[in-house]
From TrEMBL:
Residues annotated as domain GerMN: 186-277
Superkingdom, taxonomy of origin: Bacteria
InterPro entries to which the protein is assigned, alphabetical: GerMN, Gmad2_Ig-like_dom
The name this protein goes by in its record: GerMN domain-containing protein
Biological source species: Candidatus Staskawiczbacteria bacterium RIFCSPLOWO2_01_FULL_33_9
């Protein structure tokens, strides 16, 4: 009889230990990440949601799981604003032996702060194989400081839906943009113009008549005449006198805001006579 009680007691203890172990595992299982989904990268600087400004110093380490050093670097990082616009990109340079499992890295990003506070640092690993299954990415949200020391305010000109239709082609309205202090401030203003209106500006009725992805090939200002040369994208599939007039006015007014500019000459691949035809 005593043996029966002893066996029952042992069985109860075993069941209790099993249940206890299961409960402990269940409560703690969400805290254990499978090895294959650990990021393999740790960013020391900046921290998540930290406010950043230019120049931005970035430091961290990679430690496997698809993240490793190759030819002195461990990947790339780019800064995006909340609309997905790329503000800066650079390589992550190894500061310790890149052939070791743990590699420290650092880099610096220089950028012009947008009129948007939210941003994202997107880290991509070094993948010499080129095979997509070996790509790794790490996302770090940040806050972009819009008050950058040394920044200057410029105006860029867009069309707006509020304009009387009678003057819609000719009238363009200014919006303020902040750019880093530079001797080439006129070019910086044009670059802002070519980026188009922000999401908030679109909600306020602003729009651009200029094609996306237009590139400035050359800009000179001599004797109060600004001469700006664009690539062929400026006039690609552009038609109608209204749109042509709007494009010219957007560019011209953006440059005329500067005291050193009294007139503007627009060219495409060096041509001035037969461009932007209605």
């Amino acid at each position: 009889m005593k043996k029966v009680f002893l066996l029952v007691a042992v069985a109860i203890i075993i069941v209790a230990l099993t249940v206890g172990a299961f409960v402990f595992w269940w409560q703690n299982k969400t805290e254990i990440l499978p090895e294959e989904i650990k990021p393999g990268i740790e960013v020391f600087l900046p921290k998540i949601n930290e406010e950043i400004s230019s120049p931005l110093e970035i430091k961290g380490t990679v430690n496997g799981n698809g993240w490793f050093g190759f030819e002195g670097q461990v990947g790339t990082v780019k800064l995006l604003d909340s609309e997905g616009n790329e503000l800066a990109v650079n390589y992550l340079k190894a500061t310790t032996d890149w052939m070791q499992p743990f590699v420290r890295f650092e880099t610096t990003l220089d950028f012009v702060s947008p009129n948007i506070n939210e941003g994202t640092l997107v880290f991509n690993n070094e993948n010499p194989s080129g095979l997509p299954q070996y790509n790794r990415q790490f996302i770090l949200p940040v806050k972009i400081n819009k008050t950058v020391e040394g920044a200057v305010q410029v105006k860029v000109y867009f069309n707006n839906n509020s304009t009387d239709s009678q003057y819609a082609c000719k009238e363009v309205l200014p919006v303020d943009r902040g750019v880093s202090e530079t001797k080439a401030v006129a070019r910086a203003a044009l670059e802002e113009l070519l980026q188009g209106p922000t999401r908030q500006e679109i909600l306020e009725g602003y729009f651009t008549s200029i094609n996306p992805n237009v590139k400035i090939q050359k800009l000179t200002i001599e004797n109060t005449v600004a001469k700006v040369d664009f690539d062929i994208t400026l006039e690609k599939n552009v038609g109608g006198s209204c749109r042509v007039t709007a494009i010219r006015n957007q560019i011209t007014q953006t440059l005329l805001q500067f005291n050193t500019v009294k007139s503007v000459v627009i060219s495409i691949n060096g041509r001035t006579e037969d461009i932007l035809q209605p």
